[in-house]
Design goal:
The chain has helices at 2-8, 10-41, 46-51, 54-74, 76-93, 103-131, 137-168, 170-192, 214-234, 237-244, 250-270, 280-299, 307-339, 345-374, 376-394. By secondary structure, it is mostly helical.
């Protein structure tokens, strides 16, 4: 049948992978917002809410490191489907009675979700390398940007859905809806994804999980600080600041964060049209200046400044941050896929996203700790310092292709 033939083509497999990634991302974004708002509503402090995500981020580090090896050994279709199944299991763990939702239980569920998310991401990003010829770098940049940008747009939709579902159907009702929907996606993926995609022609050794490429190592170090810089203010500090200091409701907080991520993903998908990879340092410097400027503005406001004015200032400043961060992230994502080895691509991509997960873990913990002890402004200042470090690191990369 024509549709079946299309789904087995490179473009069709790209569509299946993207669809899987989209569905997973919706549940991932919604779950994060549900956990942040629901447990803050129950009286958890900023640091306690941050700790709920520690296992999520920590096991993301472990998963990327070992998942890249498993992808090269077993095939990327298997690692992607395992990720979908684990997310269904993680959601199911949260369907227990409310009295059973202890910190340890939620952290365990988040650990499974972290493993699932990074298996899914590593598999999706790695598979694109296998579908595009090495001579088609512009096409590779475009496909990576579309996948990553659309994913982040849908993650923003997930943030909004999380807050909306918490309001309309409650915590467990929202979890049940997501678990049923993702189960259907998982079954479809088992039927449609090609077997052995991305499986290495050689038998990868366990020691191959450590990258021996200077470019991969530098990109990985830069990625750690890039995503640590975002999550220092975005994950815990900003939602709690909006809810506690500006008195925003749950749906307002989730709607703002959703819109931010949606717009960020949209710009990310369009980045190849106006941002060349060889100009990464320029975009990095612009990005590093943004949180410092926002922090300086907030630190110098008078006591009589209304919450409405502060809200508008944050929306404007963080909107600029999102645009610049999208460009930087899109170029980073292209460079890692482009620089990765063709045979056993998931080994390099997994190592890189291990650093990405380490940055998110560092940023999440710092977000809760710094906000609780010092407030939002210091979070923004540390974010700016992290971005300067990321920009300095990529400045030493070999010259990139003119794409």
């Amino acid at each position: 049948m024509p549709m079946f033939s299309f789904l087995k083509s490179n473009l069709g497999q790209y569509a299946v992978i993207t669809g899987n990634y989209w569905a997973f991302t919706l549940t991932d974004g919604a779950l994060r917002m549900l956990v942040v708002l629901y447990f803050y509503q129950l009286g958890y402090s900023g640091l306690e809410v941050a700790l709920l995500f520690v296992f999520y981020e920590f096991f993301g580090i472990v998963t990327n490191l070992f998942g890249g090896w498993l992808g090269a050994k077993w095939g990327l279709n298997r690692t992607m489907n395992i990720g979908l199944a684990l997310q269904v299991l993680a959601l199911s763990m949260l369907l227990v009675p409310t009295a059973w939702l202890s910190v340890i239980w939620v952290m365990a569920a988040q650990a499974l979700s972290g493993i699932a998310k990074d298996l899914n991401k590593m598999s999706a990003k790695s598979t694109i390398k296998t579908l595009v010829r090495d001579t088609e770098q512009s096409k590779l940049y475009k496909w990576v940007a579309i996948l990553t940008g659309s994913k982040n747009t849908l993650k923003g939709v997930g943030f909004f859905l999380g807050g909306l579902m918490l309001t309309l159907v409650g915590f467990q009702g929202a979890i049940l809806i997501m678990a049923i929907s993702l189960t259907a996606v998982w079954v479809s993926s088992l039927l449609l994804l090609k077997a052995d995609t991305g499986k290495a022609s050689f038998k990868p050794k366990f020691s191959d999980i450590w990258s021996k490429s200077r470019a991969i190592n530098m990109l990985s170090a830069a990625r750690l600080f890039l995503f640590g810089a975002r999550d220092i203010w975005f994950v815990i500090a900003l939602p709690l600041f909006l809810a506690s200091q500006l008195a925003w409701s749950h749906w307002q907080v989730s709607a703002f964060l959703a819109f931010w991520v949606i717009a960020y993903g949209f710009v990310q998908a369009l980045a190849p049209r106006f941002a060349q990879a060889k100009h990464l340092s320029f975009w990095g410097i612009l990005l590093a200046l943004t949180p410092a400027a926002i922090g300086f503005y907030l630190a110098n406001q008078q006591a009589e400044t209304t919450s409405q004015v502060l809200g508008y200032a944050l929306i404007l400043g963080l909107g600029l941050f999102g645009l610049l961060f999208a460009v930087n992230s899109s170029i980073h994502s292209y460079l890692i896929v482009s620089s990765a080895r063709a045979d056993g691509v998931s080994l390099d991509v997994g190592f890189y996203y291990m650093a990405n997960a380490a940055g998110r873990l560092l940023g999440t913990v710092l977000s809760g700790w710094i906000y609780q002890t010092a407030g939002l402004v210091p979070c923004l200042i540390v974010s700016s310092l992290f971005l300067l470090l990321a920009t300095a690191i990529v400045g030493g990369l070999p010259k990139t292709a003119d794409v």
